[in-house]
Every structure is written in structure tokens, then in C-alpha cells.
From TrEMBL:
Subunit organization: The complex comprises the extracytoplasmic solute receptor protein and the two transmembrane proteins.
Protein name in the entry: TRAP transporter large permease protein
UniProtKB keywords: Cell inner membrane, Cell membrane, Membrane, Transmembrane, Transmembrane helix, Transport
Lineage of source species: Bacteria, Pseudomonadati, Pseudomonadota, Alphaproteobacteria, Rhodobacterales
Family as reported in the entry's similarity comment: Belongs to the TRAP transporter large permease family.
InterPro entries given in the database record: DctM, TRAP_DctM
Membrane topology of the entry: Multi-pass membrane protein
Cell compartment(s), UniProt: Cell inner membrane
Domain TRAP C4-dicarboxylate transport system permease DctM subunit: from-to ranges: 12-432
């Protein structure tokens, strides 16, 4: 077999193994190692390439940002800042039909600016928002659907772990990617809020209709609202203000944010030693998982380059007359399709090593492409049969809940469509992602 044939065969084998249930990182490593062995007919060379790929992929100073932002997000969750944010948003939107849904979106948008982890947002607001919405007459599917839909804001509004991963894979500035996510994140938040208001007016049966009542909600004074929001404002100013103001690198901002979150949690007396230990263990687990994925993707990229497949695909695309738009649309469709079975990080690790070399040859702005890629893979968090955010919500609800997976997918469907609309807007108007750069 030629290198090109081995490259294409490796993709097919990987998809089969992943569909069979093998972990994505192990699949990437195994298939890449065997493929290099076959291309060069030399197992020693495959082993040396694996060692080099592993060493180079995680030795970068930038990679230190991952555990720091994960730690910050988990401490913020334990400190109850998500609960405080929802309380304030609930107070602000209490008079709107569907107001608790809008409050959930607003709280998630703010929470995303200090966590960057969609799964954490889904877990926190399932516990915080769903019981409150059910108590006020919202339908089960809308109560969980709005949490699932708004949880994905955590991967678009900076700081975002997916933007960090994209920056590592494509060698783009993480700071620039964070800035590029601001406007699309705000647009998506506004689209969700307007969509909920529209559903309240024209499809009240979907969200709960006239049974929704917020008159019995306790009121908060301005001082109480300010006190609940103060920690959030401080962390956002510290992390994002530090990055955008040129004071911190993304890694330094992650360290400052993690330290700030720890101080706030201690001052609030919401972080005991047992909670702190669990946060550290979970941070280690998450970081190790991401680390193995990046190492596997690095070896996979080198194997593809060795096979000559990216160059062949680039020449074929250019020779066939496909424009930038056609290639980007194809990438979007593949990512959304893979989203039905894989998590967001795995999709990026599989698709980007093939797509980016082609699009680089077509002079595509890789910062804009990063926003497109994040939106495309995040749609997959809401789509069956995998829908990672949906399963996190189902798991968080516990075994005694009367809400089924089907109801969660039903409730999340309008938000997946709204996300597709925002994706189309960013595709048609690239300035939404690049205007602040």
C-alpha cells in the first residue's frame, strides 16, 4: 500500500474503532503508530516518532493554561457562584413570560466568562435552575432544554477550553481566539434570550404557557444583588481584563483566576478540605484526559503528514475548483455529523489535522475558522444519539427523575437550531469573529 492509501485506510479504521467504543486517544495512538510502521516499514521509527510527538505536544508553556482554567472553573462551581448568578438573573427577568429561561441563559453567559467548561455549566444549572423552573410551572422539556442549550456558552464565551485546544492544535494565539469568541458568544446569548421570549409569545405551550408564575419570588435589594455579583465581576476583570489589557498571558491569567477563585471560595466559607481535595483530583483527571487526547492528535497529525494525504487533498481541492466556502461548509457538516457520536474535543482532534492544512493553503483566517469550528462541534452536544450535555443533565438529575432523555433532546432542539443560525451568521459575516482583533 502507498502512504496515501494507508492514510485513508487509517481514517476508516479509526472511525470503526471509535464506533466500537474504544477511547479516542487510544485509537489515535494505536492507528497512528501502526500506520507509520506500515509507511516506513520500520517499527523503531514509529516508536521514535511517537516519543517525539508526545514530548513536543505537552511541553509547551501554553499548555499550563489547561489545568489552571479547569481548577478555576471547578472552584467557582463549588463556591456556589452559579447559584448566586442565577438568583440575580432571576430577579432581573422575573416579569417576563419565560423569564426564568432568560435568567438561565444570562446566568450561564456570566458563568461561562469565569469557567470555560460546558459540562460544569450543565451540571451546576441542572441543580440550580431546573427545580426552580419546575416549581414555577415550566414544562419538563423546556426546563432541561434551556439548561442544555445555554450550557454550551461555556465553550464559546472566553475563557474556553476548546479555544485553548484549538490554539494548541493550530498554533494560533489563544488570546486572539478568546477575543474572537466575545461577539459570537454575546450574539448567541441574545439569540437564545430572544428565542425564549418568542416561544413565550407564540408557543406558550412549549415552555409552560399561562401556568408560569413568578409573583411569589423573594425580592432582593440592589445591595444584595451587587454583593452576589461582586465575586463574578472581580474574576472576570482579573482574568479577561488581564488578558485583553496585555497584563497577563493566557497562562498567567489562568493562574491569577485560579488563585482569585480560591480566595473567594475561602472568604465565602464554601470550600472545605474535602471539597478542595475533590476539586484537585477532578482537575487532575480532566487535565490528564485532555493531555492524552493532545498527544494522540499530535502523533495522528505527523502520521498524516508522513502519508502525504493533506498535500494530496489540498491539491485535489484546488484542482477541482472548490472555493473556501465549499471546503469550510464540508468541514462544518462533518463536524456536526461526528457530533452525533463524539464529544467536542475528539471531533476537533480528528478533523482539524486534515482540514487546517487545506484551508491554510486557501488563505483562510484561522482565527475565524476557530469560532466556526467551536460552534459546529458544540451543536453536537445537543444532538442525538450522543449529545454529551444531554447525558450530563440526565445524570445530574439522578435516577428518581421523571424527565426522560427524549424530553431533554426535545427541549434542546430549538437551541440547537438557534446555534445553527448563529453559525450561519458568523460564516456569512466573518467580522463577527474578527472585528475586535
Amino acid at each position: 500500500m502507498t502512504g496515501l492509501e494507508i492514510g485513508f485506510a487509517s481514517i476508516a479504521v479509526m472511525l470503526v474503532l471509535i464506533y466500537s467504543g474504544m477511547h479516542v486517544a487510544i485509537t489515535l495512538m494505536l492507528v497512528s503508530f501502526v500506520s507509520v510502521w506500515m509507511i516506513r516499514d520500520n517499527p523503531d521509527m514509529a516508536a521514535k516518532l511517537m516519543v517525539a510527538a508526545f514530548k513536543d505536544s505537552i511541553s509547551d508553556y501554553l499548555f499550563g493554561v489547561v489545568p489552571l482554567f479547569v481548577l478555576m472553573g471547578l472552584v467557582v462551581s463549588v463556591a456556589g457562584i452559579g447559584r448566586d448568578t442565577f438568583d440575580v438573573a432571576q430577579q432581573a427577568f422575573r416579569k417576563i413570560l419565560g423569564g426564568l429561561g432568560v435568567a438561565t441563559v444570562a446566568a450561564n453567559a456570566i458563568f461561562a466568562a469565569i469557567t470555560g467548561i460546558s459540562i460544569a455549566s450543565a451540571a451546576v444549572f441542572t441543580k440550580v435552575a431546573v427545580p426552580e423552573m419546575r416549581r414555577h410551572g415550566y414544562t419538563p422539556h423546556f426546563s432541561v432544554g434551556v439548561v442544555a442549550g445555554s450550557a454550551v456558552l461555556g465553550m464559546l464565551i472566553p475563557p474556553s477550553l476548546l479555544f485553548i485546544l484549538y490554539g494548541v492544535l493550530t498554533e494560533q494565539s489563544v488570546g486572539d481566539l478568546f477575543i474572537a469568541g466575545v461577539i459570537p458568544g454575546l450574539v448567541l446569548s441574545a439569540t437564545y434570550a430572544l428565542g425564549i421570549v418568542a416561544m413565550g409569545k407564540w408557543a406558550p405551550g412549549f415552555i409552560g404557557g399561562t401556568t408560569v408564575s413568578t409573583d411569589d419570588m423573594p425580592t432582593m435589594s440592589f445591595g444584595e444583588m451587587a454583593a452576589k455579583l461582586a465575586p463574578i465581576v472581580i474574576l472576570v476583570a482579573l482574568v479577561l481584563g488581564g488578558i485583553y489589557g496585555g497584563i497577563f498571558t493566557p497562562t498567567e491569567a489562568g493562574a491569577a483566576g485560579a488563585a482569585g477563585a480560591l480566595v473567594i471560595a475561602v472568604l465565602k466559607r464554601r470550600l472545605g478540605w474535602r471539597d478542595f481535595w475533590q476539586v484537585l483530583v477532578q482537575t487532575g483527571h480532566t487535565t490528564a484526559s485532555i493531555c492524552f487526547l493532545i498527544m494522540g492528535a499530535s502523533l495522528y497529525s505527523r502520521m498524516l503528514a508522513l502519508s502525504g494525504m493533506p498535500n494530496w487533498l489540498g491539491d485535489t481541492v484546488l484542482g477541482a475548483g472548490f472555493g473556501v466556502n465549499g471546503v469550510v461548509i464540508a468541514m462544518i457538516l462533518v463536524m456536526v455529523l461526528l457530533g452525533t457520536i463524539l464529544d467536542s474535543a475528539s471531533i476537533m482532534l480528528l478533523v482539524l489535522p486534515i482540514a487546517v492544512p487545506i484551508l491554510t493553503g486557501l488563505q483562510v483566517d484561522l482565527i475565524w475558522l476557530g469560532v466556526i469550528a467551536i460552534l459546529a462541534v458544540e451543536i453536537g452536544l445537543l444532538t442525538p444519539p450522543f449529545g454529551l450535555a444531554v447525558y450530563v443533565i440526565k445524570s445530574t438529575l439522578g435516577p428518581d427523575t421523571d424527565i426522560t432523555l427524549g424530553q431533554i433532546f426535545k427541549g434542546a432542539a430549538p437551541f440547537a437550531l438557534m446555534m445553527a443560525l448563529v453559525l450561519a451568521l458568523v460564516f456569512i459575516f466573518p467580522a463577527l469573529a474578527t472585528a475586535l482583533l
